[in-house]
Design brief:
heterodimer, A: alpha+beta, three-stranded mixed beta sheet, 4 helices, about 20% strand, B: alpha+beta, six-stranded mixed beta sheet, five-stranded antiparallel beta sheet, 10 helices, about 35% strand
């Protein structure tokens, strides 16, 4: 009888230890998954409220990739002026301008894929605009250094020229700091 | 009841087995310390806090990473990178460093044998696998005097006691070391002002320390002898008659690549006079990095042609041409793999590359962009981060010291490729990650645009690839002086 009791206690202890180990493993796994999920959260910004008829408009200068630049030597960017709904909210205005860049040029030439959307854009107190691009936008582009430079310079120049509070632009991809935008150009430091 | 306790213990032990790695044993001053391992991404790593405490090292975490300070210098660790900065060098570890939380860092085992010797003032010896012993090394002062004569220089090393000196003839310098002692150097003057020996340096990279007598432009050879009472080791370097006769002969240890003439693109057949700014050391390999690879196809087209395949084929052609000329070549990948950018530049630094060429083909929105573009690292619009507070050169600023040479190589390469493609493209500067850390003249070539239909056809043609490879190899071979290549 005593043996049976001992065996039962032993089984209970083993089961408790196994449950503890499993719990520890699962909670660590869950924590890691949670971290990954934060990075994947589709956190796209909306600019629709700006597009209300009758709202005050302002002219903005948008810088697009210039196909006439050839391989090198010419200007990488070309300028187009457009009227956009105005808001005194710097962050909202900056988001609206970048969304307008994504729409492409009047002649139909697109730098970004048609479904491109800005993930997030923040303007920090020190004048740094943090532009968060989704990975699928970059994957949907032709690739190559010219493309990466065109994306960076187009957004940076457009924001700096149109939003006086923005002094430099930092890029994130999928909400995270990355070494490069899409495999070539370092985005470790902000662009001016 | 004993059986119950035993079963419980056995179960706990069995359950914990998969999470346990081998612990490290550090023997120091009669104490034995065990450093437990921790599994991270399938690798056993060891707590740096425990190691530092055991060895009396200080650690401090800053914005650029963790600094580990020892009596002979600092190490700079960066989370997620296998490279450790040690003075002006970098040490490549077998695995990445891991920052678990603030102040809680983990390192692979070879951190002990590869990185710690740079900062410890004791000798670390491997007793058995996983067990290390620290032994103190006695210190000894060595006085260095120089006697200068018209055709030779005698450098006298006078240790404070009897010591076994070792003299080695290396390509650029003569190395003098004293085993079993940590040297405290007393160099009376390193301003020798001689063309035979241009300077004396002391390197404390190794624990014992070594003296380096840098060979001057008229150096011909040396002999060594010992003198007693007191013990002295003399290295007598002199001008060789042959060297003296060949007054203006080019240094055979370097090739010189010439700058293009102003207003005209350089051509392979049009060799301007030598310029000493770009010197690819012929004893060092040319490092070629075929871009992308593995699941990263680079620029692709609907026709099934991908950048990774084209640049790899091109690389093999260039390698063959250079090796036919006797030039050593190293590649960042030899098959369809995709090493990280840090690993590519790290491999180039590890092989002490004389020049670094990253090969790519271009892509751009639309199909108009055409022609080759040669890139160098740099961009005035980028605000660089500050140097680390440890006074080390951060890994990603390694290329800065080679900016002038890189640009010169790029101008020359751009000229040769423009001639082949019939374009007038210019060298561009951009903050390219793969070039940032390379400690050698480094360029990235985008050899035409795959998004341009005409160039896509050319790049896919074996005949054109042969011509392209020849043009690139020709620039790298150019300036050959002395018959080494």
């Amino acid at each position: 009888m005593k043996d049976v009791r001992n065996i039962v206690i032993a089984i209970l202890l083993v089961a408790t230890a196994a449950a503890l180990a499993l719990y520890s493993y699962m909670s660590e796994r869950a924590r890691q998954t949670a971290v990954e999920e934060v990075g994947r959260e589709p956190l796209y910004v909306e600019t629709e409220p700006l597009e209300v008829p009758g709202r005050e408009e302002r002219a903005v200068r948008l810088y697009f990739y210039n196909p006439g630049a050839g391989g090198s030597g010419g200007n990488l960017l070309m300028r187009e002026e457009r009227l956009l709904a105005h808001t005194p909210d710097v962050q909202l205005m900056a988001r609206h301008i970048v969304q307008e860049l994504f729409r492409g040029r009047r002649d139909g030439l697109r730098m970004f894929p048609e479904q491109a959307r800005l993930r997030q854009l923040y303007v920090l107190d020190d004048g740094t605009a943090v532009v968060d691009l989704p990975r699928d936008v970059l994957n949907g582009m032709p690739g190559g250094i010219t493309t990466e430079l065109a994306v960076i310079e187009s957004i940076t120049r457009t924001l700096r020229e149109n939003v006086s509070e923005i002094r430099r632009v930092r890029f994130l991809v999928e909400g995270l700091d990355q070494d490069t935008l899409a495999g070539h150009v370092s985005i470790r430091n902000p662009f001016m | 009841m004993n059986r119950v306790v035993f079963s419980f213990w056995l179960t706990l032990t069995l359950l914990s087995l998969p999470t346990l790695g081998r612990s490290l044993q550090l023997q120091t001053e009669g104490r034995v310390l065990n450093i437990e391992s921790r599994q991270h991404q399938g690798h056993a790593l060891y707590g740096l806090t425990d190691i530092a405490r055991a060895l009396g090292l200080r650690t401090g975490e800053g914005p650029t990473g963790l600094r580990v300070s020892g009596p002979r210098g600092d190490l700079q660790l960066t989370d997620g990178r296998p490279l450790v900065g040690a003075g002006d060098q970098y040490v490549l570890l077998s695995n990445r460093v891991w920052r678990r939380s603030r102040g809680d860092w983990y390192v692979p085992e070879d951190f002990l044998t590869r990185a710690l010797p740079y900062v410890l003032d004791r000798r670390l010896e491997t007793v058995s696998p996983g067990a290390y012993r620290l032994d103190a090394l006695p210190e000894m002062e060595v006085r260095v005097g120089v006697n200068r004569y018209p055709d030779h220089v005698a450098v006298v090393f006078e240790p404070a006691g009897e010591a076994q000196g070792r003299v080695r003839d290396l390509r650029d310098y003569i190395e003098v070391s004293f085993q079993d002692f940590a040297i405290r150097p007393r160099i009376e003057s390193n301003r020798i002002q001689s063309e035979v020996i241009s300077g004396i340096e002391f390197s404390s990279t190794e624990l014992q320390g070594t003296f380096r007598l840098r060979k001057g432009s008229r150096y011909g050879g040396f002999r060594q002898y010992r003198m007693e009472q007191p013990f002295r080791l003399v290295v007598d370097a002199s001008v060789s008659p042959r060297e003296a006769a060949a007054t203006r002969r080019a240094d055979p240890a370097v090739i010189t690549i010439d700058p293009p003439r102003a207003g005209a693109a350089p051509t392979p057949s049009d060799q301007p006079p030598p310029d000493p700014l770009l010197r690819i050391r012929t004893e060092r390999p040319i490092f070629i990095d075929p871009g992308h690879g593995g699941d990263d196809y680079g620029v692709t087209t609907g026709t099934g042609i991908s950048e990774k395949t084209i640049v790899f084929e091109l690389t093999l052609r260039i390698q063959r041409l250079l090796e036919q000329e006797g030039a050593p070549v190293r590649l960042s990948r030899t098959r369809d793999l995709n090493p990280t950018l840090d690993r590519r530049s790290g491999a180039a630094n590890f092989s002490r590359a004389g020049a670094f060429v990253s090969l790519h083909v271009g892509g751009a929105p639309g199909s108009a962009a055409r022609g080759p573009v040669v890139y160098v690292y740099g961009d005035a619009t980028v605000q660089e981060s500050n140097s680390s507070d440890a006074g080390l050169t951060p890994w990603h600023q390694g290329q800065q010291a080679f900016a002038a040479e890189s640009r010169r190589l790029a101008i020359h390469m751009q000229g040769a490729l423009n001639q082949l493609f019939g374009t007038e493209n210019q060298v561009l500067a951009a903050p390219l990650e793969v070039l940032a850390a390379v400690q050698a003249p480094a360029i990235l070539i985008e050899a035409g645009y795959l998004t341009n239909p005409d160039e896509r056809g050319l790049l896919n043609s074996p005949a054109f690839q042969d011509r392209l490879a020849a043009a690139i190899a020709d620039v790298l071979k150019r300036g050959h002086a002395g018959g080494a290549w």
